[in-house]
Amino acid sequence: MYAEQQASSPLIWGMNFKRPKLPLFLFLAFKEIWRTRGRFFLVSLVIALITILVLFIAGLAVGLGNGNKEYLEKLNGELIVYQENVSLLIPSSQFDRSKLAEVKRVEGVTDAGAIAFSNASLVFENGREPLKVSLIGVEPGKPGEPPAYQGRGLRGKQEKGAIIDKNVAVRTNLQVGDTIVLKSTQNTKEELYPLEVVGITDGRQYSIQPSVILPYLTWDRVRPKGAVNGGEGFTYNIIAVKLDNPAEWQAMAGRLENQVKKVEVVDRKTAYENTPGYGPQQSTLNTQRFFSLLIGILVLGGFFQIQTLQKVAQIGMLKAIGASSATIAISFLLQIVLVTILGITIGVVGTLLLSLSFPATVPIVFTKDAVLTSIISIMLIGPLGGLVSLRIMLKVEPLTALGLAS
C-alpha cells in the first residue's frame, strides 16, 4: 500500500525521497500544478471570467459616475451656491443677477460665475441621428467656463460660439472652426441655431450627456422655452465661487450662508453626489461588484476543498515522511496565488481586447485606481476561498489519513 500511494500521489510523484533542488514547498506546489495542469487551468479561466466581470462593473461605475459628475467635479471654483430648500437639486435652484452680486461682495471671494443648465440636440445635415446634449450657460472668463484645450475660450456674452467637450468631439468628429446646429423647442416650434465651435475642452458631461458650453446670453436665447416661461428674465441655477484661500472653504461656506440670504453652499464633491441618480447608481454597481467577488470566493473555495479532500491520504504521507504542516500550507497558498495571478492576467487581457470593440457611446471608463482596486480585491479572494481547505490540511493526522490508526 505504501508503494502504491507513493506512485499514485501527485504531490510526491517523482520525488523518490531525494531532496529536491527547490525548497520543498515550491517543489510540491509546482509539481502538483504541472501534473494536473488542465484542472488548474480551468480554474484560472473561471477567475479570468470573474476578473472581466469585476473590471467591467468597475469601468461602468466610473463611466456612469462621470456622466453625472464630470462638469461639477472639474469646476474651477471651490464652492457651489444653491437656492435654499431645494435639496441641492440644480434644476430647482433659481437665481437672478442680484444674488450673484451679493456673493461677489463677501470678503474672501476671489470671483464668482453664474451657471445655467438646459438640454437640446445637435442635428446634422447628413441624416445622422441627432445627439442629445447638455446646454450649459456660463459667464465668459468666470468660474464655470472650462478651459479650451483646443481653440480658444468664450469672448463675449452674446458670442455665437460654443465650447464642446471631448465627448461631443469624439462622437461627432467636430473640430475647432466647424459649425454645429442646435435644435430646441421655442413655445410650440422647433428652432435651429447655428453656432461656431471656438474651442474643445476635456470631458465635461452633465446629466449623463455630453456638453455644449455657451455664453449665458446666447444660452438664454437658444435654450428650450415654453409659452409660460418664454417671457421671463434671465435666471440661472447655481453660482461657482472661487476663494482667496481654498483651504478655508468650510469657513467660507458658513460665511456665505450667513451674509447672503436664502442660499445653501456646498463643496464640489457634495454637489455631484447629490445629483439625481448618482448615489443609487453607484450603490447598485458596488453591490454587483461585491457579489461578483463573493461568487469568486465560493467558486475557489469549492474547488480547493474538493481538491484537498481527494488528497487527504497524500497529505498524510507527506507528514509521515517529515513534511511539516507549515510547508504543506505554504505550498497550498502558493498554488492559490499562482492560479489567481494566471486568471487575473487572462482576464485583464480579455477585458482590454473586449473594450477595444466598444463604441464611444458605451459609458465604460477604466481608470488606474479602479483597475488596481479591482485586481487587488480579486487577488484576495483566492486565499479567502482556500481558508476552509487550509484548515482541513492542517488537521490531517498521518496515521488516520493512511488508515493505520487503531
Q: What's the layout of helices and strands?
A:
Blueprint: H1 2-8, H2 24-35, H3 37-73, E1 79-83, H4 97-104, E2 109-123, E3 131-138, E4 150-151, E5 161-164, H5 166-172, E6 179-186, E7 189-200, E8 211-215, H6 216-222, E9 238-243, H7 249-259, E10 263-267, H8 268-273, H9 278-310, H10 312-320, H11 325-355, H12 368-385, H13 387-395, H14 398-401
Parallel strand pairs: 3-8, 5-7
Antiparallel strand pairs: 1-9, 1-10, 2-3, 2-6, 2-9, 4-7, 5-8, 6-7
Helix pairs in contact: 2-11, 3-9, 3-11, 3-12, 9-12, 9-13, 11-12
Q: What keywords describe this structure?
A:
alpha+beta, 406 residues, six-stranded mixed β-barrel, 17% strand, 2 domains
Question: How do you describe this structure in short?
Answer:
The protein is α+β, with helices and mostly antiparallel strands and about 400 residues long. The chain has helices at about 1-10, 25-35, 35-75, 95-105, 165-170, 215-220, 250-260, 270-275, 280-310, 310-320, 325-355, 370-385, 385-395, 400; strands at about 80-85, 110-125, 130-140, 150, 160-165, 180-185, 190-200, 210-215, 240-245, 265. It has two domains: about 1-65 and about 280-400, no CATH class; about 85-260, no CATH class.
